Amino acid sequence: MCGIVGYLGHREAFDVIVKGLQRLEYRGYDSAGLMLFDGDQVTVSKTKGKVFDLKERAENANAIHGNLGIGHTRWATHGVPNDVNSHPHLSNSKRLALVHNGIIENYQSLKTTLEQRGYTFSSDTDTEVLVNLIEEIQQKEQVKLAKAVRLALNQVVGAYAIVVFDIEQPDRLVTARMGSPLAIGVGEKEYFIASDASPFIAYTSNAIYLEDGEMAVIARDQEVEVRKIKSNKEVDPFIVELELSLEEIEKGGYDHFMLKEIYEQPKAIQDTFRGRLLSDQGLIKMAGVEQHLNTFIEAKRIIIAACGTSWHAGLVGEYIFETYLRIPVEVEYASEFRYRDPVIGPGDVLIAISQSGETADTLAAIKLAKSKGAFVFGICNVVGSSIARETHAGAYTHAGPEIGVASTKAFTTQITLLTLIALKLSQAKESLSHSEIKHLTKALEAVPAKVQEVLELDAHIKAIAEAYFRAENSLYLGRGYNFPVALEGALKLKEISYIHAEGYPAAEMKHGPIALIDEQMPVFVIATRKGHYEKVVSNIQEIKSRKAKIIAIVTKGDQEVAALADHCIEIPEIEESLTPILTTIPLQLLAYYIAIMRGCNVDQPRNLAKSVTVE
Ligand code: M6R
What we know:
Layout: E1 3-8, H1 13-23, E2 31-37, E3 42-48, H2 51-60, E4 68-74, E5 89-90, E6 96-104, H3 107-116, H4 127-141, H5 145-153, E7 158-166, E8 172-178, E9 183-186, E10 191-194, E11 206-209, E12 214-219, E13 225-228, E14 234-235, E15 239-241, H6 257-263, H7 265-273, E16 277-278, E17 283-284, H8 287-290, H9 293-297, E18 301-306, H10 308-325, E19 329-333, H11 334-337, E20 348-354, H12 360-371, E21 375-380, H13 386-390, E22 393-396, H14 409-429, H15 434-445, H16 447-455, H17 458-468, E23 473-478, H18 483-497, E24 500-505, E25 522-527, H19 533-545, E26 549-555, H20 560-564, E27 567-571, H21 579-597
Parallel strand pairs: 18-19, 18-20, 20-21, 21-22, 23-24, 23-25, 25-26, 26-27
Antiparallel strand pairs: 1-4, 1-10, 2-3, 2-4, 5-6, 6-7, 7-8, 8-12, 9-10, 9-11, 11-15, 12-13, 13-14, 16-17
The protein binds 5-amino-5-deoxy-1-O-phosphono-D-mannitol.
């Protein structure tokens, strides 16, 4: 989704903005732009393509000077990706410049009204409507920028994070948010604005996170002024100290963020259970769950709502919760749940899972569940994110920043956290004995070392990728706990290599997908010894009879599948419910290497955004 950056201070804004936009590239985008004010003149540079192209264009035009500026990476919603539709957008008189992340839903009616009043539009965007609406209010009401922005936003329906500059008040920027993320970095006589803290972490670790429905004025030599957009009530800005380090958001010697994040999994999983897992005592400590134990264990049912990879982790969670807790669980796509008038109310628990904590559909599912009286618990990675703030209680995965668009460590840490929660609740509900819990806590504690063992198969996995990177179709099969892993493996491959991939429960293959199988088709099968092993072996026989290529993920020492498969990847023996954490690692590496061999941009796949902040 779009990324925004703003700067006001003593540095060359060009450098801050270009580097900041590069930090936000992971969000996914198709064009970029920036505006600079050098104390006298405004320059605007925009281009379809990458931030690198923007930098070159601005440098060639010598449009690189000024201590104030705004920048943008655009993920097209209204209008194709081209130079004209790129942000910043200027108002008709060229007095105002604005960057925007979000969607103005009532832009068409606002545009018609503005057109009737003589405004003209050069782009197809909703953003150009907003900047002209602000200008129209300024002129009609004879008000300054902040008031005009506030009045305009009160007419707007939709989601936004915006930054606005007015050449007639060139000592300030006005920013506001509703449904799209926004952070203000507070430095020494300088301010930063960005979609997240990564663009300014190199300069300051003090940040203000605006709440939905708030706006702020940042002005030279003045304190940040925060107000409610609706009521105009002033709010005390709350400055937080960021824990993020520059190192965490850099590639650290890896070629891609995705590979770095795959390799970070042993540590990320350990960080998820650090301080929570007391394996010697067979105990789990989780304040967010402890405070609501009864709500959980007396729940009529648990609904898990999420999107994409987080939804796959939710499916694994369903198996874990039902096995250990004996509470019915349903897993819902947040985007479906929010619009289908679901039966949910007091006595139900909704667990929302989201790496970014900003996914618009998951956020809307939470709001809906809350409005109907359900208890809502959040599992997020990004600290202080919208979902973390919107839920009644929650727990962080502590996986560290995930920047590659393809989710990797988020998935395995979400499963780790779901396991911790299930064990904690099983203890309280006594649905598992103390010795069973102790056994499982020990098994969980051993996971990081086993993940490390799987990572050491990197060269073997790369060689398998070499054999299949030209495939155009592929099938992923798994059963039980590993059915969601089949879905996740297929999602990883399709999103970064653009190979068509289907994930299926292995037994469902006979109900349709088997028709796709021929000698060209690689079939990735998860066939670990525990859980439906014999059944999966039968499925492998069926695939073999149709001459497809079989790549099997098996338990170390497996002979039976090895005799049937073209390639085997061996994972260490592990408790069945924890197998997804291990079996997913080879599928991540396979997708990564196949995509690299096809020349794809793995960290920024086409059309995709890291956090989907529009529905
Ligand atoms: O931040 P979230 O976990 O809410 O994101 C959900 C999906 O957008 C995300 O998992 C997406 O499917 C990834 N690109 C998958 O790799």
